[in-house]
Design a protein that fits this description.
The complex is a heterotrimer of chains A (567), B (383) and C (308).
Chain A: H1 2-30, H2 33-39, E1 51-56, H3 71-80, E2 85-87, E3 93-95, E4 98-104, E5 110-115, H4 129-140, H5 148-153, H6 160-164, E6 175-179, E7 182-186, H7 194-197, H8 208-214, E8 231-237, E9 241-246, E10 260-265, H9 269-277, E11 283-286, H10 288-294, E12 300-313, E13 316-317, E14 320-321, H11 327-335, H12 339-347, E15 352-353, H13 371-375, H14 383-397, E16 402-408, H15 412-428, E17 432-438, H16 441-450, E18 455-460, H17 468-471, H18 488-498, H19 505-521, E19 525-537, E20 541-542, E21 545-546, E22 553-554, E23 559-560, H20 562-566
Parallel strand pairs in A: 1-10, 16-17, 16-18
Antiparallel strand pairs in A: 2-3, 4-5, 5-7, 6-7, 8-9, 9-10, 11-19, 12-18, 12-19, 13-14, 15-19, 20-23, 21-22
Chain B: H1 2-7, H2 33-42, H3 45-67, E1 100-107, H4 110-120, E2 128-134, E3 143-150, H5 151-154, H6 173-209, H7 211-226, H8 229-239, H9 244-271, H10 274-281, H11 286-322, H12 334-343, H13 350-377
Chain C: H1 2-29, H2 43-52, H3 59-71, H4 86-121, H5 126-140, H6 143-157, H7 169-199, H8 202-209, H9 214-227, H10 230-251, H11 257-267, H12 270-298
Helix pairs in contact in C: 1-3, 1-12, 4-5, 4-7, 4-10, 4-12, 5-7, 6-7, 6-10, 7-9, 7-10, 8-9, 10-11, 10-12, 11-12
The chains are: A alpha+beta (567), B mainly alpha (383), C mainly alpha (308).
C-alpha cells in the first residue's frame, strides 16, 4: 500500500511538471495574455498559465452553428461565435454583436437591433447585419436540414415555417439588413423573450463568403471554421482531443483572459476521475458511484440543470381509455414514488426532487421571486394519500388488478430508475403490475408520438429562458402532449399568456403560475426530479458561468487562478 | 525371458480348442467407443476436477437463488452498497468478508481526517473505528487515518448476511450472481443445442445425399461462413426484442455452421467405409443406416464440438451485454453483471469481482472438459 | 490456382452483396433517424430533414442508391455527426485500431509460438504445465476481464501506465497487452500440439539417429514444419482481434473503429453501423482469402482446387 502510494506520488509529480512544461510552451506562443490578466486587478486574480484542460463526453457532432443541436455542439459553437447577445452570469444577457437594447414596435412584432461596428471575423471582414440575414436564412433553408432552425424560428419569425416547408421563398423570411449595422426582424406574434433566443447558436451570424467557399467541408475540421467569438478552434482530432485558443480579433478580446482550452474526449467516468486525480484535467463529471466517494471533497461541485423530469400519464392509449383516465389513479401514481430515495440513492448525481413542472432557479417573475418559490410544492410524495386515492380509483374503475406499461429509454440511468419506479409503484399501490418497456431513444419517440404507452418517463430541457418553453408542453393536442390530456382552463391560460397578456409581464406571469397549478391539480403528469450534474472542479477554474439554457458553461469571463489550485 | 522359456515343459501346452464358431469370440469383453472414452476420462485429473466444479456451479445456480432469503430484483435503498459478509469467514479478517468498509483518509491533523471519514460514512460515528496511521505535522493532508465502518451495524441489520454484498439499489448480489449464472448457462446451452440440431441435420443431409444437393448446400454454407458472425449477431440483437430468446437466436443464426461443416466431413468419410456399404448391400433402409451406423460414429465429434460451443456462447452473451446489447433489467446475466460492475470498478470492485470470477471459472472448466473429451474420443490425440 | 482465386473472388462478391442487403433490410426494420431532437419538431419539419437524407424515397430506390454508393466507396452520411461522411469518419479512426491490431497480433503470435515451443520441447515438464495453464487461462478468460484487471492494477493501483485515452505510444501498451492475450494463448496451444506431432515424425527420429544435436533438430526440422499449419489459425485469430477491439477500445477510450461502432450501435446511427459492417466484412473476407492463398503457396501438400 505504502509503496504504491509513493509510485503514484512520483507519477503525479512527473506528470505535473510535464504538463507545466507543455502549457508553458503553448502560452509563450499564445501571446502575453497571462501578464495582461494579472495586471487587471478588477477581474480577479488570474495568475499563471491561462489554460484549462477539460473533458468532453463525446465527439462534437457538429461545429456548424446552423446544425448544432446537442449539448457539445451548442457549447462550443457558442464559444467561437457570437450572436446579438450572449448569456452572462446567472443567465442574464450581455451585449454581443448588438449594442444597447433593441427597439421594439408597439405591437411587439418589429424588432430593430443596432450592431457594433468594431466586430470582426477572424479573417478581418466586419460582422454586418447581412451576416445575420444569411445565417438565419441558411438555418431555415430546407436544404440545410437544420433541426433547431425550424424549431426555434417556426412560429416566431415571420414566414419561418412557410420557408422551411418550401411554401415561401428564402427572402420572405422576416429578417432584413436595413444597412450594414441595422438588423430588422419581423415576428409572427409578440415574443417577449426574443432577445434570449438570439443567444442561441442557430441565430448566430455566418460569413457568407467563407461558408460558401468551404462548401461541403464547412465546419468539418478546425480549419473550415471562422470565428467571431471569444475563442477560435485550432485543433480537432476527431474522437480524441480538441483545442480552442483566444481569438485576438474578437471585439471584446481585452475581457477574455483565458488563452487556451484543451478538450479530451472521455466517455467513461472512472477514466475522467483518474485523469482529474493525476492533474491531467481540471474538471470532470461524476456519476452516482463517484458522488458517494467525492461528495465531501472541496473540489466537488454540483450544478443544477434546468431539465425537468416527470412521468407522462397517458389517459387514452391508441383510442382506448387507460386506467389513468381516472383522476384518482393518476394522483395515486404521482404520490406513490419516494422521490427523495430516487434523487439521493438511485440518481445521486446532483439531481433534486421536483414537485412541479417548472425547474427551480430557471425564471424569476416581475416581483423578483423564483417561479418555484411562488408556486411551491404542488404534488409531493405521500404514500398514505396514494394508497387512499388508489383504493378509490380501483372502486371507481371496478377493477382490482391493474396493469400499466411504463416506457423508458435504454440507458444505464433509465434502467436503474425504472427498476426503482416499478418497485415503488408496485409496493405502494396494491394490485398494480408495472410492465417495463425499455427501448432506444428513437423508438421511444415513435411510441410517444403514437401515444402508445401508459406511463412514460420523460424530460424537458429548455432552449431559451422563458416559462413558455415549459408551459406550452401540455396544451390540448400539442406536439408534446401525446397523452390525451385536455383542460380548457389550462389551454386558455397558456393562450392568454402568448396573446392578450404577451406585453403585460405581470398578467403573463400570473397566467403561467395558474397554468402550472391546473396541470398538477389534475395530476396530468407526475413530477419526479430536476436534473443536475456533479463535477470535480479544480479551484483554478474561476469566472466560469453555468447557464440555465443554451451552452452549459460560458468561458468568456473565465480565468485560471493557479495559486488557488496549489494551496 | 530366454531362460524361462527353456524351463517350460512342452507338455504343459495343448492346442487351443478352436472351432469355426469360436474364432470370432473375443477373449476380453469388447469396449465400445463410449466405454473406452469414459475409462480414459476417469484417469484425467483435470477433467474430473472441472466436472465437479461445473456440477457445483450448476447446482448453485439452480438452488442458491431459491434458498436465498432475497430475490434478484428485490430492492431496499436502506441497504444500498453493503459490503460482502459471509458467516464464519467473516472472522478471518484478511479476507475482507466481514461486511465492513475500510478506507484511508488524509487531513491536516488527525481530527480533520477523522471528520472526513465521518462525513464519508453517513455520520455514523458510533460504528466507525479509527486507526491513526500517521499523526501528521499540521501541514496539508499530512495526517492519515484508517477508518473502518461497520455498515451492517449502522443500518441495524447485524443478523443479515449478504454473502457478496448488495448493489446500489440494495439488491442481494449473491442471489443476482447465481441467478445470472443460470441465465447465462441457459442461453449458452440452448444456443449450443440449437446449433447442434441445425448443424447435424444440415451437415448430415448434405453429406448423405451428396452430389448436387451437397454442392448447393455447401456453396450456401460458404457464403454464410463468409459473414463475420460478430456483425450478424449485433444486427440481429438490434432488431429483435431484447430478451433471452433474442440472444439465443442471434447466437445460433451463424453458430450452426461449424457443426454442419464438421458433421458433413465426418459423414462423407464414414459413407465410404465398408460397414456402411455392407449395410446398404444387405438392404438396410436409409433411416436405419443413419441411426445405426452413422450417428453413433459421429457422436464423439458432435459432443466435443458442442462442448466447445458452450463457452463461446457464454462469452458472446457477456460480450453483447458488455457493449450494451444484453438482457433488459432487472434480469441479470453474467454479462450484464460484469457490465454494471465495470462502472463501479474503482468504487465498489466487489460488484465486478464475483461475476468475473465465475464467468472465468466457467469458461476454463468448459474448455478443459472440451479438451478432455476431444482427447478421449479421438484416440490419435491421446498421449 | 488462378481459377481457384477467381472462384473465391466471386464468392466474396456474393457474400458482400448479401451482407449489404441483409444489413440494409435490418436497418430499415429499425426505428432510427437523423433527428437528435425529434421531440421538438412537428412532423412536417421532420419530413424536411428526412428529405436531405433521402429517407422519403421509396425503399427500393433507397436500396439502389445505397448499393450504388457502396460500389463507389461512398458509405453515406452519418446521422449524428452532421454532414460528415461515414468513409471520412472511418478513415479518421482506422489509425488507432490498426496500430492496436498489428501490435497485438505480432506480440501475441511471437509470445504464443515461444510458449508453445517451450511446452513441446519440455513436454510434460514443469514449464509445459505452466505454459499450458497460461494458454488455458488466456483462451478462457474473457478479454474484458483481463482488460479490467490490467487497468485496475497496472494503471490505477500502481500508476505505471496511463489509465486510458490515446495520446502516444505509452497509451497503447495496456490495450495491446489485453488484446494480445487471446492470440497468444491460441498460438501457444496450437504450436504445442503441432510441435509435439512434428517431433514424433519419422524424419525427426532419423535426424536424431544420424546424431544431430537436439537444438539443430528442433530449429532446422521441427519449428519450420510446425509453423506452416499456424497460418490456418490466423483467420480465427484475426476474427478474435476484431471482436476484441470492440470492447478493448471501449474500456481504454481508444478512438478507433470498434469504439465508434459501439457508440453508433447504442445511438442508432445507421449509416455508420452499415458502413462499419461493410468495412469489417471486407477486411475479414479479404484476410481469409489471403490466408487461404498463402497456405496453398507454402504447403505444397494442399492441392487447391474448386472443391474443399
Amino acid at each position: 500500500m505504502r509503496k504504491s502510494n509513493w509510485l503514484l506520488l512520483a507519477l503525479v509529480l512527473v506528470l505535473s511538471s510535464f504538463l507545466a512544461a507543455c502549457s508553458g510552451g503553448s502560452n509563450s506562443s499564445g501571446g502575453s495574455g497571462g501578464g495582461e490578466g494579472s495586471g487587471d486587478s478588477a477581474s480577479g486574480s488570474a495568475n499563471g498559465d491561462q489554460v484549462y484542460n477539460l473533458t468532453i463526453g463525446d465527439e462534437i457532432p457538429s461545429m456548424d452553428s446552423s446544425l448544432a443541436d446537442d449539448q457539445y455542439g451548442i457549447q462550443w459553437t457558442s464559444e467561437i461565435q457570437e450572436g446579438l447577445y450572449r448569456l452572462a452570469e446567472d443567465g442574464s444577457l450581455a451585449e454581443g454583436i448588438a449594442t444597447g437594447d433593441p427597439e421594439v414596435s408597439e405591437d411587439g412584432l418589429t424588432w430593430t437591433f443596432t450592431l457594433r461596428e468594431d466586430a470582426e471575423w477572424e479573417n478581418g471582414d466586419p460582422v454586418t447585419a447581412n451576416d445575420f440575414v444569411y445565417a438565419w436564412q441558411r438555418a431555415i433553408n430546407p436544404d440545410t436540414g437544420s433541426e433547431y432552425g425550424p424549431y426555434m424560428m417556426g412560429g416566431v419569425i415571420k414566414n419561418a415555417t412557410a420557408v422551411n416547408t418550401g411554401e415561401a421563398e428564402l427572402d420572405e423570411l422576416g429578417v432584413k439588413a436595413v444597412d450594414d449595422y441595422t438588423l430588422e426582424v419581423q415576428l409572427e406574434k409578440p415574443v417577449p423573450y426574443f432577445e434570449s433566443l438570439t443567444t442561441f447558436p442557430t441565430f448566430m451570424p455566418l460569413n457568407q463568403k467563407f461558408v460558401e467557399e468551404q462548401g461541403e467541408n464547412y465546419a468539418l475540421e478546425a480549419d473550415n471554421l471562422l470565428s467571431n467569438g471569444p475563442f477560435k478552434m485550432t485543433e480537432w482530432n476527431h474522437g480524441s482531443t480538441m483545442q480552442f485558443v483566444k481569438n485576438d480579433t474578437y471585439w471584446d478580446a481585452d475581457t477574455v483572459q483565458l488563452e487556451e482550452i484543451n478538450l479530451q474526449v472521455v466517455k467513461d467516468t472512472a477514466t475522467g476521475v483518474n485523469l482529474y486525480d493525476t492533474g491531467a484535467v481540471d474538471r470532470t463529471s461524476l456519476t452516482a458511484e463517484f458522488v458517494d466517494q467525492r461528495i465531501n471533497d472541496e473540489d466537488y461541485l454540483p450544478v443544477p440543470d434546468m431539465a425537468s423530469w416527470y412521468l407522462k400519464l397517458n389517459q387514452n392509449r391508441m383510442g382506448e381509455e387507460t386506467p389513468l383516465a381516472n383522476e384518482n389513479a393518476r394522483k395515486a401514481v404521482a404520490q406513490a414514488i419516494d422521490k427523495d430515495g430516487l434523487v439521493n440513492v438511485v440518481l445521486n448525481n446532483g439531481s433534486t426532487v421536483s414537485n412541479g413542472l417548472m425547474p427551480k432557479d430557471f425564471v424569476k417573475g416581475p416581483d423578483g421571486k423564483d417561479f418555484r418559490e411562488t408556486n411551491g410544492d404542488l404534488l409531493t410524495y405521500d404514500a398514505e394519500a396514494a394508497k387512499e386515492a388508489w383504493a378509490t380509483a380501483k372502486e371507481e374503475l371496478g377493477q382490482d388488478e391493474i396493469t400499466l406499461e411504463i416506457l423508458t429509454g435504454d440507458t444505464d440511468l433509465s434502467t436503474q430508475m425504472v427498476d426503482y419506479l416499478k418497485e415503488q409503484l408496485e409496493t405502494n399501490l396494491e394490485g398494480l403490475t408495472v410492465d417495463v418497456m425499455q427501448v432506444p431513444f428513437q423508438q421511444r419517440l415513435d411510441l410517444d408520438t403514437a401515444g402508445d404507452f401508459d406511463i412514460e418517463v420523460s424530460g424537458w430541457g429548455p432552449d431559451y429562458i422563458d416559462p413558455y418553453t415549459f408551459m406550452n408542453l401540455f396544451v390540448t393536442d400539442g406536439e408534446n402532449n401525446r397523452m390525451a390530456y385536455s383542460s380548457e382552463e389550462y389551454d386558455s391560460l397558456v393562450e392568454q399568456a402568448s396573446t392578450d397578456n404577451a406585453t403585460n409581464p405581470e398578467a403573463r406571469w400570473q397566467n403561467f403560475l395558474d397554468a402550472e397549478k391546473v396541470l398538477l391539480e389534475d395530476a396530468a403528469i407526475a413530477p419526479l426530479y430536476q436534473a443536475g450534474y456533479s463535477y470535480l472542479q479544480s479551484p483554478k477554474l474561476q469566472g466560469v458561468f453555468s447557464n440555465p439554457a443554451g451552452n452549459d458553461f460560458e468561458y468568456k469571463w473565465a480565468y485560471a487562478d493557479n495559486a488557488a489550485a496549489e494551496e | 525371458m530366454e531362460n524361462r522359456k527353456k524351463e517350460l515343459d512342452k507338455n504343459l501346452f495343448r492346442p487351443a480348442d478352436r472351432t469355426e464358431e469360436q474364432s470370432d469370440v473375443m477373449a476380453r469383453k469388447s469396449t465400445t467407443l463410449l466405454q473406452d472414452a469414459v475409462r480414459s476420462l476417469r484417469k484425467n485429473v483435470f477433467f474430473m476436477i472441472s466436472l465437479v466444479l461445473l456440477l457445483i456451479i450448476v447446482l448453485m445456480s439452480i438452488f442458491a437463488p431459491v434458498a436465498s432469503d432475497y430475490t434478484y430484483k428485490e430492492q431496499d435503498l436502506n441497504r444500498s452498497l453493503m459490503g460482502p459478509r459471509i458467516p464464519v469467514l467473516e472472522n478471518i479478517s484478511f479476507l475482507g468478508l466481514d461486511g465492513t468498509q475500510t478506507k484511508t483518509f488524509n487531513g491536516n491533523n488527525v481530527q480533520a481526517a477523522e471528520m472526513k471519514a465521518k462525513m464519508q460514512f453517513d455520520n455514523q460515528e458510533d460504528f466507525i473505528t479509527f486507526e491513526t496511521v500517521n499523526e501528521g505535522d499540521g501541514s496539508r493532508n499530512s495526517a492519515e487515518v484508517k477508518a473502518t465502518y461497520d455498515k451492517y451495524a449502522a443500518k441495524g441489520v447485524e443478523d443479515e448476511y449478504f454473502y457478496f454484498g448488495t448493489d446500489r439499489l440494495g439488491r442481494d448480489v449473491w442471489t443476482r450472481v447465481w441467478d445470472g449464472t443460470r441465465v447465462s448457462l441457459l442461453i449458452a446451452v440452448a444456443a449450443a443445442l440449437i446449433d447442434l440440431v441445425i448443424g447435424v441435420a444440415y451437415g448430415g443431409i448434405a453429406a448423405y445425399y451428396g452430389g448436387r444437393v451437397d454442392n448447393y448446400m455447401m456453396r450456401f454454407l460458404e457464403v454464410i461462413i463468409g459473414i463475420p458472425n460478430l456483425v450478424v449477431v449485433i444486427l440481429m440483437i438490434l432488431i429483435l426484442d431484447p430478451g433471452i430468446w433474442a440472444i439465443i437466436i442471434a447466437l445460433t443464426i451463424t453458430g450452426w455452421t461449424s457443426m454442419a461443416r464438421i458433421v458433413r466431413g465426418e459423414v462423407l468419410k464414414l459413407k465410404g467405409h465398408e460397414f456402411v456399404l455392407a449395410a446398404r448391400t444387405l438392404g438396410a433402409p436409409n433411416r436405419k443406416i443413419i441411426a445405426r451406423h452413422l450417428v453413433p460414429n459421429v457422436m464423439g465429434l458432435i459432443i466435443v464440438n458442442t462442448m466447445f460451443s458452450i463457452p463461446s456462447a457464454i462469452f458472446f452473451e457477456a460480450f453483447l451485454s458488455f457493449i450494451g446489447l444484453g438482457l433488459p433489467s432487472p434480469a441479470a446475466s453474467l454479462g450484464t453483471l460484469i457490465n454494471d460492475g465495470f462502472k463501479t470498478l474503482l468504487t465498489t470492485p466487489t460488484l465486478l469481482v464475483f461475476p468475473a470470477v465465475i464467468i472465468s471459472v466457467l469458461m476454463i472448466v468448459f474448455n478443459i472438459l472440451g479438451d478432455g473429451l476431444r482427447d478421449a474420443f479421438d484416440p490419435k490425440m491421446r498421449k | 490456382m488462378a481459377r481457384y482465386i477467381g472462384q473465391r473472388v466471386i464468392y466474396m462478391i456474393i457474400t458482400l452483396f448479401l451482407i449489404a442487403t441483409i444489413s440494409f433490410v435490418l436497418m430499415k426494420l429499425l426505428p432510427g433517424s437523423p433527428l437528435a431532437n425529434a421531440d421538438k419538431l412537428t412532423e412536417a419539419q421532420q419530413e424536411v430533414i428526412f428529405e436531405k437524407y433521402g429517407l422519403n424515397d421509396p425503399i427500393p430506390v433507397q436500396y439502389v442508391n445505397y448499393l450504388g454508393g457502396l460500389i463507389q466507396g461512398d458509405l453515406g452520411i452519418s446521422f449524428k455527426y452532421d454532414n460528415r461522411g461515414v468513409s471520412d469518419i472511418l478513415a479518421d479512426r482506422i489509425g488507432p485500431s490498426a496500430q492496436l491490431g498489428i501490435q497485438a497480433l505480432i506480440i501475441g503470435t511471437v509470445l504464443g509460438i515461444l510458449l508453445g515451443l517451450v511446452s513441446a520441447i519440455y513436454h510434460n515438464g514443469i514449464s509445459d504445465y505452466l505454459s499450458t495453464i497460461v494458454a488455458v487461462l488466456g483462451t478462457s478468460i474473457p478479454s474484458f476481464v483481463f482488460a479490467g484487471l490490467l487497468q485496475y492494477f497496472v494503471a490505477v493501483k500502481w500508476g505505471i501506465l496511463p489509465v486510458a485515452t490515446w495520446n502516444g505510444f505509452e497509451y497503447s501498451i495496456l490495450p495491446t497487452i489485453a488484446l494480445a492475450i487471446f492470440p497468444m494463448a491460441t498460438c501457444a496451444r496450437f504450436m504445442r500440439t503441432e510441435m509435439i506431432e512434428v517431433l514424433n515424425e519419422d524424419y525427426i527420429t532419423t535426424a536424431r539417429a544420424k546424431g544431430l544435436a537436439g537444438t539443430a533438430i528442433i530449429f532446422k526440422h521441427g519449428i519450420r514444419n510446425a509453423l506452416i499449419p499456424l497460418v490456418t489459425i490466423l483467420g480465427p485469430l484475426a476474427v478474435g482481434l476484431l471482436t476484441g477491439t470492440l470492447v478493448i477500445e471501449q474500456i481504454f477510450s481508444v478512438p478507433g473503429i470498434g469504439e465508434q461502432f459501439v457508440t453508433s450501435v447504442t445511438s442508432n446511427d445507421f449509416p455508420i453501423i452499415m458502413g462499419t459492417t461493410m468495412f469489417f466484412a471486407v477486411v475479414f473476407i479479404v484476410m481469409i482469402l489471403i490466408i487461404d492463398i498463402l497456405y496453398g503457396l507454402i504447403d505444397p501438400r494442399i492441392r487447391l482446387s474448386g472443391k474443399d
